[in-house]
Structure formats: C-alpha cells, structure tokens
Amino acid sequence: MPLIDAELGPRPGPTGVPIRAVLVCLMVSIHHSGKATLAEAWRLAAFSLSRTSREQLGLDADRPPADDPHACLADNRRFYRAFDRLTSLLDPARHDRRTRLPQHQADLLATAWQDTDPDHTRKRELLQDIVTALVLTPVRWAKGRGYLRHFRGDVGIDTTATPVFARPPHVRRSTGELIASTEITAGWHHSAGNGPPEYGYSATLTVAARTRSVLGSFPQLALGLVLDTPHKRIGADAITTLRPLAELGLPAAFAVVDRAYTDQQPAHFAQPARELGYKLALDYKVDQRGVQGSAHGALLIDGSPACPLMPARLAQATTGLDDTAIRTPSEELTALIAAREPYLLRLKQSANTGGSIRFQCPAAGTSPSVTCPRFDRLHQRGPIHATAVDLTDARQRAAHVAAKPRVLPPAPDHKTRDLPKICHQQTITLHPGDLGHLDKFRQDLAYLSPSWRGTYSTVRAMTEGLNGRLKGHDLDLSDPKNRLAHGRVAQTILAALLVAVANDHFLDQWRHTHQPPDEPDASAETFEIPAEHLDRSPLTGRSRPPPVP
Q1: How many other C-beta atoms can be found within 10 angstroms of the C-beta atom of residue 162?
Q2: What does the pLDDT look like over 102-153, one tens digit per residue?
Q3: Could you tell me how far CA 295 lies from the centroid of its own chain?
Q4: Cβ 144 vs Cβ 523: under 8 Å
Q5: DSSP H helical segments within 287-403, as ranges?
Q6: What pLDDT score was predicted for residue 516?
Q7: Does the pLDDT of residue 233 top 50, yes or no?
Q8: How does residue 355 score in pLDDT terms, banded at 50, 70 and 90?
C-alpha cells in the first residue's frame, strides 16, 4: 500500500472508496470463492462485512439498502471507480479498455509497454514493484517465522499461460479492417505440449524448490511473478523475479529452467542469473545436444567444458537423441555419460566479480582423473614410481594411475606451437564472452549425470506441481472468468492477488502438516489483531466456511 498511496497522492474532490478496501475485498473474494472479480468483491463489501470491518477499511459504516437498486448501483459504481483509478494511473498506454481499436492504433499504444520513455518505464517498474510486494508478503511472513530455514536457494522458473476473457484480433467483415483485441498487449501462448495455443498473457513464476540432497522441509511458495506478452522478454522476466530474493535475504543456489530459457541470449538470462549468484541446470533441444562449441581448445559438450581429446563415442553420446531417449536413458547411454566424467575439466576457481571462471585440465593436479602422454611431455612430468596398493581398498584401487582412463593423442602428435591453450597450460580462464552466444548452453552440472538428474528432475517436478496447484479447483489462474477486468494493469494486479492468496493457502496447509503443536504460531515482532476486533460472521452466499476460532 505505501507504493500505491505514494503514486495516488492527494486528489481533489471526494475521497471515494479507498483502494485498500478494494484490494482487501478482492483477496477475501479469492480466498472464499476463488474469483478475482470486482462484482464478487463488491458484493462482499456491501452485504457480507460487518459494521466494524467496513469502518476499518474506510467504507461507510452503513450498508447500502438491498431493496434500493439506485443506492446499490451508486455504491457499486464508487467501488469500481476506485479500482479504475488505480489501473488508469499505472497504465503507460491509457485508452478506453472496453473499445476494440484498429490494429495499427493498438500497436502504437502497445509500444508504451516496451519503449524507453522515462514516464512509461517508471510506471512499468512501479507496477512490477506492487506485484512483487503482493506476492512476497506471505514469503516474508514465512521467513520471519523460520519456516524457510531449510530452504537452500534452489528455484524453478517456468512460464505458464494466463488466458484473458477477450476476443483475439479479427478482420471486420463489413470493411475488411483488422480490429485489435481489447487486450492490446496480449498474444498467443504456445505451451511445450501438444495442446492448442491460448490467447492472453504469459505468467513467469519462480518457485521455491529443493533437490534430493536437501534435508528438512519448507513450504513450496511462489517467489516471483511477471505478467507479459507471450514469448517476449522470457529471460528478462525471469531475472526480474530473481532480483528481489537477494534483498529479502534468501540464499541463491541452482536455477532450474526448461529449454525456452536455454534459447535466450546469454546477456538476457544466463549471465545476469550468474551475477545474482545462481548456478544453472539446463536441458537442450535435439539439435543442441552433443558437442556445442569450444573455447581455448576445450570442447563444450552438453554445457560442460571437456578435454579436446575425449573419445568421439563419448563426446557424441547424446547427439541426435530424442526426448524419449533422454528422459528414459538406456543402460548404454548411462554408461557413456558416466565414462565422460573423467574427461571433464574441473573447476579450479569459482567466478570472480567479473564472472570469470578458472578450469583445470583433467590430467593436471595432484589427483588427476585421466593420464595423458601429451600433458606428461609438455609439462615434463617424471616417471611414476611403483607403489604398493591395497587391493581390498576400493579408494586406493580407483586412485591408482592404472585405473584411470588414458587419453590417446594422435600419432604423431601435433607440434607444440599448434596445440590448444588448454594443453599448453594446466588451467584456463573462461571469461563471459569467450564462448560468445554459446555461453547460453553452459551449465554447472554434467548433463544427465546423477547429480543433474537429482537437481533438474526434482525441481522441474516441483515447479510443474505448483503450476498445477495454481490452476486447481479452489484457485484457477488459467480460468479467464476469474479475472474479468480489462487491461494489462488490471490483469497483472488480479493475477498477483491470486498468487498471493495461493501462497497463503500453501503456507497454511504446510503449517498444519509440519508445524509442531507446541511451536508458537507467531513471533513477538508480528502484529496481531486483538481477538475482540476479529469479525467471525459468516459470509453470505456460496463460499468456504470461516476458519474455526
């Protein structure tokens, strides 16, 4: 509310219905009926709230007479105008949102949502700040009570369809003119599955997730939301959801995304995500698997830098494989992926402030994972002295040089001056621009390895699970009838309210399952409404019952 109040400021004339009252009634409507509609919210405000509740929200203490249609209509109009005042103020492209404009006029207005005009940019950023504050309110509540103490920073990011109750653009029969939709920035959202496209917006959601190796439990909450035109600014929207998490004091670990984000330019997603402290776990399309490029002589194989002399059979193990073969790998593919590991370059030093990373040759160091005649020749490694090995000790057997794969350079080998940098040096420094556009493929886990599967598959399942819960029976973000207000600002605010209420539901369900009976329900720093001021009168009409006192 401070963000909204600062933008509204003092206005001449009657005060009207407070926007806080409208937003609270919308959230109550979502909680009890799953609908973020102004009609349902007004009915709650007019006929279901007690006198005390209306006074606390800044509404008239007396309800409008139910048998006076003129009084009800006037009260309804005041309620609607309050919400319209907010959406008009935040809209960078103000117009009559109930009129279908010619497509060329709508396109001109829609540029306000992506241009660099300072006033337009300020309004877009303010709208996103309001959305972030709404979505993160239950998250702050959970963090303050220690419910996220086992959260290690793993997040899943996904884009889901948010249809609108508006017709798509069509050609007017009488004139042949192309008429735009009332939602001038909406578009067709194509999902990864085989379902038909949906007309509306795309909601980018960031989810608090966990990997198989994480112990303890925490509530699965939505940590961020951005509503945008489908298939536009996919990477930038994901970064927008991640930035506030650092300010909230949440850790950063793995960011797990699908192939739509792998296709983004490095400057749009991969590089900003790493600057925020996140590691990446990615998947690839069929034509992106296998050898993807090279830098300083090291091959980039399925996102991991590797020895340039890795056997071709291992390097090409995933080349041309379809999604079915990747999701259910055969024993042969699993063995090939395991055989790759010794040839992968090892991380020598994590990224510095400039994003540069040092990798080490797998034949270098005190515990090399391979043996390499080229490395021994260039770096004058002396002969290996015979040592006794306890054959009953699996670790000693694996550490012996005879148990490690041997790199086979071509015979005769290349001249020293013709060898790549990774062979001349024991380590290489990989700068952000060394891979060029191929940097979007680089990830921090070996593709299809057990660690990758334990991270990627688990987090993706949790991400899809939260998307399913947001489109369930109680709350359905995918039903446009639950969000009837026109305009992108209205749709954004209503979607944020739906996600905020959903977070509250998820948190409440988690507490009932995991919170010990003797654990205090609230900290001393949390404001609580005195029991005598609570309104426990049931809502009229079809709704959920109020909570048990």
Answers
A1: 28
A2: 999 999 999 999 999 999 999 999 999 999 999 999 999 999 989 999 999 9
A3: 30
A4: yes
A5: 312-315, 323-327, 331-340, 373-378, 394-399
A6: 61
A7: yes
A8: confident
With a cut of 70, say whether residue 12 has pLDDT above it.
no
> Which of 496, 467, 502 shows the shortest CA–CA distance to 483?
496
Please count the other Cβ atoms lying within 10 Å of the Cβ belonging to residue 247. 9
Contact 459, 278 (CB under 8 A): no
Cα–Cα separations (whole angstroms), residue 370 to 93, 374, 408? 61, 12, 11
Residue-wise over 164-198: b if at least 16 C-beta within 10 A, else e? bbbeebeeeeeeeeebbbbbbbbbebeeeeeeeeb
Name the E strands within 33-131: none
At residue 32's C-alpha, the angle toward residues 462 and 495, to 5°, is 55
Q: Give me 54's structure tokens.
A: 């209306």
Say if residues 455 and 152 touch (Cβ distance below 8 Å). no
Residue 307, C-beta contacts closer than 8 angstroms, at least 6 positions apart: 298, 299, 343, 344, 345, 361, 362, 363, 370, 372, 407, 422
CA atoms lying within 13 Å on the CB side of residue 375: 21
CA distance 186 to 488: 8
Compute the half-sphere exposure of residue 273: CA atoms within 13 Å on the CB side of its CA: 36
**How many CA atoms lie within 13 Å of 444's alpha carbon, on the beta-carbon side?**
19
| Interval 70-91: pLDDT, tens | 999 998 999 999 999 889 889 8
Q: Which two tokens stand for residue 369?
A: 């994972």
Taking the C-alpha atoms of residue 290 and residue 509, their distance in angstroms, rounded to an integer, is: 43
Q: Specify the 3-state DSSP secondary structure of 436.
A: helix
